[in-house]
Every structure is written in C-alpha cells, then in structure tokens.
Design a protein that fits this description.
Chain lengths: ~120, ~110
C-alpha cells in the first residue's frame, strides 16, 4: 500500500515569503507528526495531531509556524515570513494510534526547504 | 526535558567488523526506545524498538537492549556489511505515558568499507 507522501519534495523561497508544506498520511492512521531535520539541530519534533486536533504544539519554534489537519487525513504545515534559519528538511510521519511508544511511526520522504 | 545522546561519527569500519553505537538517554518515567535508520537517498525507517526495561529489540542482525540501570540502548551487530552504511538515530517516546513525538539523538553516520 501507499506510504506517507509529502509535497513538494523541494521548495526554494525568498526570505519573508510564506510557504505551505503538505503531508498525506497512510490511510487509516489517526496520528500524524511533523519533524524538522537540520544540520545544526538534528531531528526536532514540531507538532502532533490525533485526528484533527493537535494536543501537543510544544515543538513549534515560533508563532510563524502553524499546522492544521482536516478530515483526519491531510495535514498542512505553514511557515509565515520565512527566515533563512527555517531552511531544513521537514518530515511528516503517521502511526495507527497516538501512543508513540506503542506504534511505529512511518516517515515520509520529506520536503527540503531552502530560504534564500 | 527528555534527551538522547549518541556518538555522532562518522564511524568507519571494514566489512565483517563488529559494531557498537552507543546511546544514552535522560527521561522521566518509562519511555520506549527506538533505533531508526536512514539509508542514502531514502526516508527514515524503524530498525528496532524496546518498550520496557530489559527488553531486547532485534532486526536485520542488529540488536539493542533497554538498560534502565545505565539509561542506555546501545546498538550492536556482530558482522556489518557494506549495505549497512547509513545514518542511525536513537530515539525515545514521551515518558509521560501520553501521546507525543519522538525525541531523537543527532544521528551516527556509519560507513562500511569493503
């Protein structure tokens, strides 16, 4: 079956522009996670959804970052007024429940964001 | 907060050598522990996991044992292959028992030479 997909695979934008990154989780997976992978910081947890709600937004680095999920499926991560330090690979993962310790998270290929 | 520390490498070994990648963690409560692997040009994938103390996770010849007394989850393999070249990430789940994201180490780049 299809895995987690993300689009676009690459995004180059100018400083100050807004960007939207999309994640399509595995069908039927109720939990969805966003992470950021950068050279300096490694892999950082950003936000988690259970269904359409986000009980844990603790990892969002600033108020320029927001995310939503509709229909318990597709999720969009939005970065407003992008800065050069936002350049990273943004990874999405999904799992069959929200118990991170109980169920494997399946990762998408990521979106590489470059802010010029 | 929770944290994971692992050797960053790169670690370069010859084929058929023994491998150990150290991983230690700091967490309150009782986390689950994971090793994820990222092969060149591919996405992250789960290699093995252990959900409670003294559990041993194993897959593809790799093993790791959850040691609560030393807060460690070292990855081992008796004889590595060129195809094992990848970046390996140690991670833990939230120790509070609720649903949350994974906390990752910074990754260890492993290079196996023929």
């Amino acid at each position: 079956g299809a895995g987690v997909s993300q689009s676009p695979s690459n995004k180059v934008t100018e400083k100050g522009k807004d960007v939207e990154l999309r994640c399509d989780p595995i069908s039927g997976h109720t939990a969805l996670y966003w992470y950021r992978q950068s050279l300096g910081q490694g892999l950082e947890f950003l936000i988690y959804f259970q269904g359409n709600s986000a009980p844990d937004k603790s990892g969002l680095p600033s108020d320029r970052f927001s995310a939503e999920r509709t229909g318990g499926s597709v999720s969009t991560l939005t970065i407003q007024r992008t800065q050069q330090e936002d350049s990273a690979v943004y990874l999405c993962a999904s799992s069959s429940s929200g118990r991170a310790g109980m169920n494997e998270q399946f990762f998408g290929p990521g979106t590489r964001l470059t802010v010029l | 907060g929770d944290s994971v520390t692992q050797m960053e490498g790169p670690v370069t070994l010859s084929e058929e050598a023994c491998l150990t990648i150290n991983c230690t963690y700091t967490a309150t409560g009782y986390p689950s522990l994971f090793w994820y692997v990222q092969y060149p040009g591919e996405g992250l994938q789960l290699l093995l996991k252990a959900t409670k103390a003294d559990d041993k996770g194993s897959n593809k010849g790799f093993e790791a044992t959850y040691r609560k007394e030393t807060t460690s989850f070292h990855l081992e393999k008796g004889s590595v292959q060129v195809s094992d070249s990848a970046v390996y990430f140690c991670a833990l789940s939230g120790s509070g028992g609720g649903a949350d994201g994974l906390t990752f180490g910074k990754g260890t780049h492993l290079i196996i030479q023929p």
